[in-house]
């Protein structure tokens, strides 16, 4: 079972990825992880990637795809894999299709965890942190037991990280919507796309994904 997991930041991909990889015993392949491994192991593609990173340049699609192709040839992908963070554009999607054909590791399905950006804005911009001890809270899901007082140290000063601030979160989601939309259209045309409502309880989302994957088996 060869899968690509999609969803905007905060949609719950990490939680569902854990469920999928544990239940189906397939590796979770995140582009960040395989880049770091390729660079650490000084593979030919890893060295190429490092040369661009050292200059502050974006790693070209052909190098990224080469690192993914190397990873998909490893023995632990024989029974399947779960891709996360790749492909990121149509050129990479086309290249993945070619790699899959060459390695007999074609995608079985694309699972998209769909949550409205407005909901995700609340999820992602609600986090705040105790300035004294670093304890983390959320205005919707995890408020201090006593308003304005840290449960851990009793401090009264809280702050938000810059990447949790509403304007930053909104822009981050906008960029991801623009990036994901062509891919969703592409995989819809390829008859691989399965969309799950991510604005439900975690067990419900898990159950729906499981039903989709059982139908693929």
TrEMBL record:
It is found in: Cytoplasm. It catalyses: AMP + ATP = 2 ADP. Zn(2+) binds at residues 130, 133, 150, 153. It comes from the Bacteria. Residues 127-163 form the Adenylate kinase active site lid domain. Keywords: ATP-binding, Cytoplasm, Kinase, Metal-binding, Nucleotide biosynthesis, Nucleotide-binding, Transferase, Zinc. ATP binds at residues 10-15, 127, 136-137, 200. Pathway: Purine metabolism; AMP biosynthesis via salvage pathway; AMP from ADP: step 1/1. InterPro entries: Adenyl_kin_sub, Adenylat/UMP-CMP_kin, Adenylat_kinase_CS, Adenylate_kinase_lid-dom, P-loop_NTPase. AMP binds at residues 31, 36, 57-59, 85-88, 92, 161, 172. One of its GO terms (molecular function) is zinc ion binding. GO terms for biological process: AMP salvage. It is an enzyme of class 2 (transferase). GO terms for cellular component: cytoplasm. Signal peptide: none annotated. Residues 30-59 are annotated as: NMP. Its EC number is 2.7.4.3. Belongs to the adenylate kinase family. Monomer. Catalyzes the reversible transfer of the terminal phosphate group between ATP and AMP. Plays an important role in cellular energy homeostasis and in adenine nucleotide metabolism. Consists of three domains, a large central CORE domain and two small peripheral domains, NMPbind and LID, which undergo movements during catalysis. The LID domain closes over the site of phosphoryl transfer upon ATP binding. Assembling and dissambling the active center during each catalytic cycle provides an effective means to prevent ATP hydrolysis. Some bacteria have evolved a zinc-coordinating structure that stabilizes the LID domain. This is Adenylate kinase. It comes from Fructilactobacillus florum 8D.
């Amino acid at each position: 079972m060869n899968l690509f997991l999609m969803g905007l930041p905060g949609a719950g991909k990490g939680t569902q990825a854990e469920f999928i990889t544990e239940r189906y015993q397939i590796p979770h392949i995140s582009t960040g992880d395989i880049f770091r491994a390729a660079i650490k192991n000084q593979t030919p593609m890893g060295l190429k990637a490092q040369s661009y990173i050292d200059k502050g340049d974006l790693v070209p699609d052909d190098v990224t795809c080469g690192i993914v192709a190397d990873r998909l040839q490893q023995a632990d992908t024989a029974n399947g894999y779960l891709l996360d963070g790749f492909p990121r554009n149509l050129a990479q999607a086309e290249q993945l299709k070619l790699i899959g054909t060459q390695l007999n590791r074609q995608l079985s399905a694309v699972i998209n965890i769909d949550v409205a950006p407005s909901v995700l804005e609340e999820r992602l911009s609600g986090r705040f942190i105790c300035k004294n001890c670093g304890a983390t809270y959320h205005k919707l899901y995890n408020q201090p037991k006593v308003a304005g007082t840290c449960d851990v140290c009793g401090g009264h000063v809280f702050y938000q990280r810059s990447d949790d601030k509403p304007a930053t979160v909104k822009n981050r989601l906008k960029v991801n919507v623009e990036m994901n939309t062509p891919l969703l259209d592409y995989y819809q045309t390829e008859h691989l796309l399965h969309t799950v409502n991510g604005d439900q309880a975690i067990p419900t989302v898990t159950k729906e994904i499981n039903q989709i994957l059982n139908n693929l088996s």
